[in-house]
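Standup, Tuesday
Yesterday: got the pipeline producing structure tokens again.
Today: sanity-check two examples.
Blockers: none.

Example 1:
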Amino acid sequence: MGQKFTPHQALVKAQKYCAYQERCHSEVRNKLYAWGLYQSAVEETIVSLIQDDFINEERFAKAYARGKFRIKKWGRIKILAELNKRKISEYCKKKGLDQIDEGEYLVTLADVLERRERQEKETNPFRRKQKLATYLNSRGFESDLVWELLNGD
């Protein structure tokens, strides 16, 4: 196990942890437990961090969605699944996904497909299309958009 901290030490450390990068409640809560705090101290620390605006779940969801889309080129489904894993509220998830511009989303989907097409070695047209669709779905892009693009609709 790691080093144990007093509630005050943990608060100071958590403030630095949250200032470095946007964090969600569950990440901070897990970190506080890992630092040896008990439930009451963890909850008090979380409340303090929220009041001092070190943690803001809506801000986290927006930054997370923007970052994963622009940097990692993830689709909405994968981003949503990751936000769900972090127990983000429905409201914040919606706000996060609203950060993704529809036009930019479709351009990114086409770019990811184009890059993958150059790498795909399958020559059978049917299997090739299927492999490309599977890849794009695994990146979190919606099936209807993927097939529309692959079929040239």
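Example 2:
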Amino acid sequence: MNIQLLRTDVASLKVDALVAPADPQSHEVNGRAVVVTGGNLLARFVIHVHVPSAGDDDARAKLHAATIAALERAEDLAVASVGLPALGTGANGFAVDDCARIMLGAAVQHRSRARSLQRAVFCLFGREEYAAFESVLTELKK
């Protein structure tokens, strides 16, 4: 599985599945990755995962688990590509560097178990996000 970084809006990405945070009020997700159709998006599927707030107990472990759950759900769908935004940043309160380490670490961990997934594309909207993810990915490749 190739890990790529793109500086773009996740909604404009042409991949088989997109990962998105679930509505915090939704009780359907709770530790699972829930799939819906992509509708008018370029992706065929949207995988919703519960994203913790940085202040939650075990927040780092929960964000790692959410990333793994999304990648595993993409495998269940037998898709070749998945797009992931920086899930824990913004309103969820994770620092961009921390989010990058957690999510990219999960993707690298999943790489050895990848079956159908050929590309995990991290969609990073701003320069700061892209630079942080690029730095962490460079470290992980060493």
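Quick observation on example 2: The chain has one domain: 2-141. The chain has a mean pLDDT of 92.
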